[in-house]
Amino acid sequence: MKKTLYIILAIMLLAVPAAFAIKSHAESSAQASKSKNTVTVVYKVNMHCENCVEKLTDKLSFLKGMEDLKITLGQQTVVMTYDPAKTNEANLVKAIEKCGYTAEKVDLQPQK
Amino acid sequence: MKALTALFLILAAPIAAVAQQIDTLEAAVTTAHVQGNYLSKGKDIRTEVISAEGLMKMACCNLAESFENSASVTVGFSDAITGARQIRLLGLSGVYMQMLDENRPVMRGLSSPFGMTYIPGPWLESIQIAKGSPSVINGAESMTGQINLEHKKPTDEKPLFVNGSFMNDTKADLNILSSLELSDKLYTILMGHVDGNFKTFDMNGDGFADDPKLLQYNFANRWLYYTEEWQSHWGVRAIRDTRGGGQIDGPWKSNVVNSSLDAYFKLGRSLREDGSASVAIVADYNIQKMESNYGNNIYNALQHNAFANLIYRNRFNDSHDLTVGVNAMADWWQEDLVARNVNLSGIKKRYLQVSPYAEYTFKVEETFSVITGLTGVFLGGGDIRPVPRLTVKYQPFEALVLRANGGRGVRRANPVVDNFGVLSTGKDLYGDWTERLVEDSWTFGGNATVYFTENTYLSLDFFRTQFSDQLLADREGAGPNGYGTIRLYHLDGNESYSNNFQADFSTEPVERLTLSLTARYTDARAWQPERGVRETALTSRFKGVFNAQYKTRLSKWVFDFTASLMGSARVYDFMLDLKDDKGALLYPQGRTPVYPMLYAQITRRFNGFDLYIGGENLSGYTQKMPIVGAEQPFGQFFDAASVWGPIMGAKIYAGFRITIWK
Question: Exposure check for chain A: N or C terminus, fewer CB within 10 A?
Fold first, then answer.
């Protein structure tokens, strides 16, 4: 009986935040697709190890207006998708420099 | 800068470090692609990597709990009393695998029974599990493979990292780490850990605590100093662990107190400006003390261990690389053992082994590599054992990696600590429990990995370990008192082997969702006196692991689920007649049942702060009657060392992480 209670408790504990997260994720995705007003920029950043990736991920993920982030250590690139109504490129560069790195903008190839 | 990089590499053992750097690059292709567990593509030897992210998937209070997502390594309990953990690699006990801390041999001898619980998960950056016969640079003790632990670095730029977690069974742990830059050349990291289990439970009603009360203090301080030519690492670590288990109301009690102090030093110098030649020395000293009792049994021991390694590396060009050196290992033991039929007091022994070695690497770009290594292990008394090892890697095209590997392994057995569970029995002990036989084995194997896409691969591997000599404990021999005996014996040229097949599949079907499926099959057998070659008891035939992880955009939510299925294992002969409460045989087929284990975790990331909750063993499966003869704990048939499954049911935990970046 105790086992069953534990399992039910465990499922409840996991299900509540899971439902909350899925709802929150669905809302943010819907909001993002509704506005569709995002800009993607690529910067070459002088990072050299996994710790640099972790630091940049932690610092950039929570910037106001940040919508998506991809960091490639091998190519030393940081790809950021942001909402221009909430932030701008200068703020993004400033955030990278504040982490102790240099940021050099890379032109995106026009899609054919 | 090249010289500095080369220096770093030689300090971390050349071949492993080169491959690791390649892996670091490939692992972090994008933040979305960093997986918890993955097979290294760059390493010459078949290596599974558990990254920092993988280490966060479990409550991960310690190293023993970090392997739940891995089929390569199986973790169990040595006994149902002390909480000592034992791992299995390639179907054989963890004592046949070499444990390295940033390429220094650790967790040898007396520290092996509880050592796994003295490595806090939050202290680690990654774990690399290499199967087969690895490099000879760190000696010849590795038989089934190596597990290398990479700790968080002094250069991590995190002045403060705090991690705490609490489980519903009253187990709690707290970790505080601080990495500091004292100058542009000098860095340090302080690591503190405390954990405890404050209350014990007897959920199965056998009168014994299901897990011990415990309190552990663990502190480490590591340093790094470097210039263009020189690089030096040094550090210290101190541990104090007390644990008490046994009957909750009865007189059968167990108390174990472990204390240890460890200090190490590494110094490397680049001999050429381009870093193609370098020399390094590694030195390590460890003192470990254990005072323990288990009912009427007593085991007290003190071990001093010293290790030194002098390494010279010369990279002639991109194709030819030679490393030569010599390592030495010294052990001083003092032991008291009191058990039924054994009363040994103040037994002192000293051992020294010296191993000169050479390792040559031939490489054709990224396509083909051969590593040949040879070491001669001088064991004293004219006993010299040549240990050759060979590793071949061939990557005919980007999507296919083929590996073959083989070699010899030599180690001294430790009769008591290698069979630690025997202390939690009431049986007569026969044989020489102070003899440290030199065990000898050969391991061969191969691996093929096919990459369908960048993040989808299938890997198949086979490894076989065969012993030519081994010290074994016979727990099934009918002695003068039936099954109430445990007798040590030598293999003496008879058969003992383990064959292992494993398949790993990993994919990312949609962005931020990773799935992995692993299956392992083991056939381990060993000769027993008068009974011939038999399947090794309590070694599961197969293990399957499924893991799914999903992250929302920017990884603000992370969901992780793991299901594993543990296959059946032959039970000891003395377990065949065991019956449950209703009088039915517990093991009618002579084998343990197949059972599932479920794990789940949800993490919410905030700016500099993570919260997580999770559950372990969510199906609540437990082994029935983990203690044989619990009703007569001082009787000769009492046996708490026949554990094959979980002792505790479902557990829920919650935790937090605080990270402050420089």
Answer: C
